[in-house]
């Protein structure tokens, strides 16, 4: 009987140590999960910011493509070089409610391209 009680006591002591180890491991894991949740929150916020930036950049690229299309219509022969030729292009004033076209201001990187576009527009009917 004494041996059985002694064996049960040893088993109980061993089980208590294992429970302490498991408890500290669970506490550590809970802390790590909380840390990862915060990291995921930060990453999610950064993703939202980057999505907004991407959307803005896409809109700007689309706008630039529209300007290039306008120039390609005026001077079809230089459409391959327009990305290198145009430094800045933007429309004047707010969008018109009647749908009429707004004027465009273009800053050319090279005077040669400006002269070609100017000459082509001057020759237009």
Automatic annotation (TrEMBL):
Domain of life: Eukaryota
Gene3D superfamilies: Methyl-accepting chemotaxis protein
Protein name in UniProt: Uncharacterized protein
């Amino acid at each position: 009987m004494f041996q059985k009680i002694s064996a049960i006591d040893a088993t109980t002591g061993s089980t208590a140590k294992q429970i302490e180890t498991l408890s500290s491991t669970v506490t550590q894991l809970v802390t790590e999960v909380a840390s990862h949740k915060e990291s995921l929150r930060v990453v999610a916020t950064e993703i939202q910011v980057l999505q907004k930036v991407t959307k803005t950049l896409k809109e700007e690229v689309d706008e630039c493509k529209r300007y290039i299309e306008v120039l390609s219509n005026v001077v079809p022969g230089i459409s391959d070089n327009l990305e290198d030729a145009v430094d800045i292009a933007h429309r004047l004033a707010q969008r018109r409610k009647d749908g009429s076209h707004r004027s465009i201001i273009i800053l050319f990187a090279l005077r040669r391209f400006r002269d070609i576009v100017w000459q082509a527009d001057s020759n237009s009917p």
